[in-house]
Amino acid sequence: MLNKEKLVGVGLITLLHLCFFSVCVAGQNQPCRPSSCGDMLNISDPFRLKGDPSGCGDSRYELACENNRTILNLYRGKYYVEEINYQNYSIRVVDPGLKKGNCLSTPLYHLTPENFSYDHPYAWPYDWGFRTTVLMSCSRPISDDKFIPITSCNSTNGTTSSSSQPYHYALSGDGESLQVGDLPGSCTIGKSIFSKLGAASEPGNRSMSSLQDQLLLGIELSFLQIQCIRECRVKGQSCYMDYTVNSVKCDDPNSCKDLSDDCYKPIWLKGLIIILQIIFASIYTPIIAAGILGRALLGVVLSYGIYKLRQRHISKHDTTKEIP
What we know:
By secondary structure, the chain is of the alpha+beta class. Among the domains are: 99-115 and 126-216, no CATH class; 227-266, no CATH class. Helices cover 31% and strands 24% of the residues. It contains four helices and 14 strands. The protein has helices at residues 2-29, 208-215, 225-231, 267-322, and strands spanning 35-37, 40-43, 48-49, 62-66, 69-74, 77-85, 90-94, 130-138, 147-149, 167-173, 187-196, 219-222, 238-242, 247-251. Strands 3-4-5-6-7-12 form a six-stranded mixed β-sheet, with no helix packed on it. Strands 9-10-8-11 form a four-stranded antiparallel β-sheet, with helices on one face. Strand 6 and strand 7 (90-94) form a beta hairpin. It is elongated and about 110 Å long. The N and C termini lie far apart (165 Å). It is found in: Membrane. One of its GO terms (molecular function) is polysaccharide binding.
């Protein structure tokens, strides 16, 4: 009877250990759940929120949650995250200084495509395009529809304008439509604001309100770099990023990098060609050297012969002069 009780006790203890072990393993293998902050409900790999478990997301793509807003810290600036698109590896952020209102606000930070290096976690691809808005103060009014009259929240508008320059305008366009020659000589250029390339409004319908909507689109950055790291660089391969289709291509440093015929020759044939080149050089190099030496010796002999003939000619001429 006692043995049966012991067996039952041992069995219960073993069962409890197995259950505990199963719960621990399940907890360790449980995938990271998406994080949320305010309106951002699906913050997942490669992104992570500050304070998430260490194994979740990539530390290079850590975001913060402040005052119920998702924040991206970038180049000593804090940007509001408006959208993350995991399909095309893009994240759209807005400068917190930009606001919709009765006056045109300006960014707190100055961010351009040139800020981003090749190996930075984020990129601002030129292939995606961007819109440039130039703010200016002018000494007299401008009637051209391309120039949008604005009311600046900052009276100087980023310029050194004075009371004699009360007219404020904005000129907005992409790289092809915005030209330096479009700026009047009577205007002082202030800040330049870069934003996502959206649909441009017609010249006659441009207003400060539509310009604010354009600027509030923010900028769109790519995080395609994470695919380069995970698919190529972990294998010791270089990576090419194609932002037009949002894909990466790995490049083996030991593979052929051109489309010449040499690229497709088998290794044994390449080795045979190298050996033949060495043999050819060893045979013909002495012959070529001998030919050059022979030509040099022939030149010396000819020069000496000419010299002797001239000496004989001079000797005969002197003898003729001495005969009475």
